[in-house]
Design goal:
The protein is built from seven helices and 17 strands. It has 338 residues and is an alpha+beta fold. The chain has two domains: 2-73 and 167-331, Zn peptidases (Aminopeptidase, 3-Layer(aba) Sandwich), CATH 3.40.630.10; 76-153, Peptidase M42, domain 2 (Elongation Factor Tu (Ef-tu), domain 3, Beta Barrel). The strands form three sheets. It has an eight-stranded mixed beta sheet with strand order 1-2-12-3-13-16-14-15, with helices on both faces. The radius of gyration is 20 Å and the shape is globular. The two termini are 35 Å apart. 50% of the residues are buried.
């Protein structure tokens, strides 16, 4: 058991420390492929760049199930480099200027830099348009980056014991959970399609095309969700350490009540702690799966996460392990949504 857990955490650290903003997922995709290829019956990459791993063969009483965890992260794209080598940028996904100032970034070509601002007046809030990236270049000609180059935040994985912090827990922790479930699950009748989707942060684009291609009978997103357990924070029931969250709704979709019941029943059967999630803002790949073709019953397994869309996102070790157990239990037996 300890060996398996060490493997999970090693994989998680590898994932969060690998760069891969939306549209530039090629490096993280290859690392995931190398980790899971021995555990899948078929593995391929579709035209948009989603990595899709099939396990099991559809049998009587089973379902074709799509499990989607996105592998892109929020980042920045260069829009202009001035004569002094400073780069202006636009966001890739939901970026707050409050979490940018002084942050360090890593470009896909290996160039590193820091986000700066010339001057911040008293009581002034930073705006993305007033920030720039300083890579140490002294001129435009000296710059190793140019228009269209992309970067993500650069932060090391931080193990705080029961809690873990990294710059892209959203959604690499879900990818790690899906990878572990893929390794462990023994499908009885279901045909499982594990999709490591791209471009979620810019409009759940990868899951749209992947769901159309897979044509699932049941869809299950795996993603992080915010918490309501910090001082003066948002009011919601989800808290770190209280178990995986079963989504009821977010701003992108309302989970199918049959899928919600299926997930709750499995958590109860395993005696796992779980939480019900109602998220007022934010969306997941569940919305893409639900609306594909003629419609799909879809839900979402959510991992509680503090400080989402910042360079330091925090998850709980027990929540991660229990999410793996819940997902394996859901996928390893015939599905009834009656």
């Amino acid at each position: 058991m300890e060996k398996k857990n060490n493997s999970l955490w090693t994989v998680l650290q590898m994932l969060v420390e690998t760069p891969g903003p939306s549209g530039s997922e090629h490096v993280i995709r290859e690392k995931i492929k190398a980790e899971i290829q021995e555990h899948a019956d078929e593995i391929y990459t579709d035209a948009l760049g989603n990595l899709i791993a099939r396990k099991g063969t559809l049998k009587e009483g089973g379902k074709r199930i799509m499990i989607s965890a996105h592998i892109d992260e929020i980042g920045l794209m260069v829009t202009h480099v001035d004569d002094n080598g400073f780069a202006r940028f636009m966001p890739i996904g939901g970026i707050s200027p409050l979490t940018c100032l002084g942050g360090r970034v890593l470009f896909m070509n290996g160039t590193q830099g820091v986000i700066g601002m010339e001057r911040l007046e008293k009581d002034e809030h930073p705006e993305l348009a007033k920030l720039f990236i300083d890579t140490g270049a002294t001129s435009r000609a000296d710059s190793k980056i140019g228009v269209g180059d992309v970067c993500g935040f650069e932060r090391p994985f931080l193990d705080l014991g029961k809690r873990m912090v990294a710059k892209s827990m959203d959604d690499r922790v879900a990818a790690a959970i899906a990878m572990e479930a893929l390794k462990e699950v023994r499908p009885v009748a279901n045909e499982l399609y594990f999709v490591f989707s791209v471009q979620e942060e810019v409009g759940i684009r990868g899951a749209i095309t992947a769901a159309y291609g897979v044509d699932p009978e049941v869809g299950l997103a795996v993603d992080v969700t915010r918490t309501g357990d910090t001082p003066l924070g948002v009011k919601m029931e989800v808290a770190l350490g209280n178990g995986p969250a079963i989504k009821v709704r977010d701003s992108s979709f309302i989970a199918d009540p049959r899928v919600v019941k299926w997930m709750v029943n499995e958590a109860k059967a395993q005696k796992l702690p779980y939480q019900m999630e109602v998220l007022e803002a934010g969306g997941t790949d569940g919305a893409a799966m639900q609306r594909t073709r003629a419609g799909v019953p879809a839900g979402c397994l959510s991992i509680p996460c503090r400080y989402i869309h910042s360079p330091s996102e925090m998850v709980d070790r027990d929540d991660v392990e229990n999410s793996v157990k819940l997902l394996v239990g859901l996928l390893g037996k015939p599905v009834s949504l009656g």
